[in-house]
Amino acid sequence: MQGRCLCGAVRYRLRGEPYHVTHCHCLSCRLASGAPFVTWFTIRALELEWRGEVRHYQSSMGVQRGFCPRCGTTLSYRHESAPDEIDLTAATLENPSLLTPEDHTWVDNMLDWVRMLPLLPRHRRHRQLNRSA
Ligand SMILES: [Zn+2]
Ligand SMILES: [Zn+2]
């Protein structure tokens, strides 16, 4: 499996099997991504190969978040208590559908409108303007 940031300056390749696929609703993930939640998977650090420069930001004690310095894509999460593991954003995989999210974490912080997602109207592409209104 492989993945990349939006601009393609950073790419990665996995040489092992991802595990612990979760939707994280914590405030830090929300702000770091600009999205209501982030889907992560974990990989052994030794089984991950980077191409291109990843820049890191310490978002809280012992936590380093990696992103592309050119386009800003959120890519990785690492906690110093688990130095041999790294989390990557599942949506940056070339084929995210190969993973099956197992659970939600930090649901105390889940936005009310995320709970409503399955109930909303769906448009195949752009929303069509309602011209009769
Ligand atoms: Zn980029
Ligand atoms: Zn989080």
Automatic annotation (TrEMBL):
Residues 1-108 form the CENP-V/GFA domain. It comes from the Bacteria. Pfam families: GFA (PF04828). SUPFAM superfamilies: Mss4-like (SSF51316). InterPro entries: CENP-V/GFA (IPR006913), Mss4-like_sf (IPR011057). Keywords: Lyase, Metal-binding, Zinc. This is GFA family protein. The keyword Chloroplast does not apply. Belongs to the Gfa family.
